Amino acid sequence: MQQPYASYPYYGPPMYPPSTPYMGPANPQGPSGYPSFYGPPHPPPAPQHGNPPAPTAYSFDAAAYAVKPPLQHGNSQPRAHRRNSTHPTAPQPQTPFPLKSAMKKTINVFSNAESTIGRQFSNPFNNASNPQRQSQAPTFPRPRVQSNPSKSQNSQKESPVDETSFHMMISFHNYNELHIEHIILVGLEEMRRVIWPMWPDGIESDSVSGHTCIVKFRNTPWDLSGPDVALTYKIITAIFHLFQSRGYSFQTLMNVASPSPRLLFQVTSPHEAEFFIVYFSQEGRKITLIDPPGRIELSTGAHLRAVLPNSYISEEVFGENNRIIEVKRKATSAPEIEQSVIFVQLLKILNNSNFNLDASIPLGRKGPLGIRYTRELLIFKGPMNATH
């Protein structure tokens, strides 16, 4: 048979001649449906040529698989644990570790490492290995307290937010709680000196929990139907005035993760400003001005008559410096003025006097049969010289 790669001299003839099909009648048959390519049981010997002889069959060498004793080296070192990169300074005899569970193996590694390696380890699972540590006194001994303290002596100190707070939030809860969040310590001390004494009934508690100061007043200062509602209005405007003079301006009102809306204040340039309160009746036709500047009190009713010439507008003065302006309903069948028109005209009049709507605070008031109603207090802000 001629080789197809005769041009390559380093490819010699095959080691074994191909098996030639046996065509005799005594040839054993192959599987059903396949041709008979099976050779005779004993093929003829290979022809004599220059090829190397066939390799001999491998035999089992029992000596190669015999178990040999481990080699003894005089300078053998224990294998370092993967958690420890330190190597021993002097050769130590190798100590075999018994097979144990994962927890026992961890304990064994710590105990053997302390005895074989110069660096001492602290075994967190074995406190008996260091009796000196057990006998040592604690670094911070427990402070001595009195037998009958008036306050909790083990409670943490007040921890308002640090001096880098750029936002502060206040919220009015129930009828007597005020929550102040993320206020700096200097601001909290100033509120204790200026705001708390304004309520004549005093306060029940003043506590700091985390970044929130919770103040509970006696009685119900946030009930707008109470007898001291005039003091409530003064406390609210005093809070806005104090925050603005210290550089915290109102930004928005949000009702997130709190039963009562939060008033968010942000750091701005501190400047003096003047605040007063306005609120509408349920129908939106009666306007109440609480302690407005003198020029605002005297001119607002006249400006409304000028912009609403076909409406009858009445004015009433009550208290020290408060005024009620009411746009009466028409007795005839003429179309009534919508409440939104009255509101927009009032905003325009106050804006022309350099007072803008700064915030709104929803507070409750008790009605008949204990029903609670909500009154929206509108906080207007203007410069101090706006009244001159």
TrEMBL record:
<feature type="compositionally biased region" description="Polar residues">
    <location>
        <begin position="118"/>
        <end position="138"/>
    </location>
</feature>
<feature type="region of interest" description="Disordered">
    <location>
        <begin position="19"/>
        <end position="98"/>
    </location>
</feature>
<protein>
    <submittedName>
        <fullName>Uncharacterized protein</fullName>
    </submittedName>
</protein>
<feature type="region of interest" description="Disordered">
    <location>
        <begin position="118"/>
        <end position="162"/>
    </location>
</feature>
<feature type="compositionally biased region" description="Low complexity">
    <location>
        <begin position="21"/>
        <end position="37"/>
    </location>
</feature>
<feature type="compositionally biased region" description="Low complexity">
    <location>
        <begin position="147"/>
        <end position="158"/>
    </location>
</feature>
<feature type="compositionally biased region" description="Pro residues">
    <location>
        <begin position="38"/>
        <end position="55"/>
    </location>
</feature>
